[in-house]
């Protein structure tokens, strides 16, 4: 298996860079995750609540679990007690539900706002206008049990590298713009989650602080 070798390559790539590797372990078995963990990886990403919860229960406690997939409001409660960062907050209603569940268990839950940057219709995410509507809402500052740490974005799935670069750059520009605003205390622009197996190199050049890499570490996924 090449998991350890792949991780060594990513670790070398990220050396001296201010960027974390989130190993996306969706569909992959516990044994694969343990191999990555033994190679020094502590951050794992999953896109389904059930799988995230199951793996959290079975694996070492010092792993930080990242929710990277679309999250339904009725499932927030299952991950609220342990999730390290929710990358995929794509509505105000979802953010309020995360706050509600955080309040119940007296935990502040770290979140990223997912911004729509791709040309594809199907991908989730907020427009710039929707994003501003949330952070400028008078009730936003009262959400004491969420902490917005930055943004997440997914580029168009295309061979056109200049298109991908343009999209990452637009997200980085928005990140810097919002960072310069007078932000409420539950929001701090620190993390920019962008880049996957096919485009992490471009994302790094455009200022990513978290790359979410699955297949380039664990091999291709078989969806049954
Ligand atoms: C699956 C997934 C990834 C990782 O994809 P790879 O192409 O396998 O690296 C990253 N981000 C999100 C949101 C995903 O769903």
Sequence of secondary-structure elements: HEHEHEHEHEHEHEHEH
Bound molecules: pyridoxal-5'-phosphate
The proportion of strand residues reads 15-25%
Mean pLDDT: 96
Question: What is the radius of gyration?
Answer: 17 Å
Classify the secondary structure makeup into a structural class.
alpha/beta
Q: Are there runs of 5+ residues with pLDDT below 50, and where? A: none
Give the termini separation. Answer: 21 Å
Largest sheet: 8 strands, parallel
Shape: globular
Number of strands: 8
Helix content: 25-40%
Q: Which sequence of strands runs across the widest sheet?
A: 7-6-5-4-3-2-1-8
Number of helices: 9
Describe this structure in words.
The protein has 224 residues and is of the alpha/beta class. Helices cover 38% and strands 21% of the residues. The chain contains nine helices and eight strands. It has helices at 3-14, 30-38, 49-58, 76-79, 92-104, 128-135, 161-179, 200-205, 215-218, and strands spanning 20-24, 43-46, 64-67, 85-89, 109-116, 146-154, 187-193, 210-213. The chain has an eight-stranded parallel sheet with strand order 7-6-5-4-3-2-1-8. β1, α2 (30-38) and β2 form a beta-alpha-beta unit. It is globular, with a radius of gyration of 17 Å. The chain starts with a helix and ends in a 6-residue tail after the last helix. The mean pLDDT is 96. The protein binds pyridoxal-5'-phosphate. Pyridoxal-5'-phosphate (PLP) is lined by residues 24, 26, 47, 68-69, 154, 196-198, 212-216.
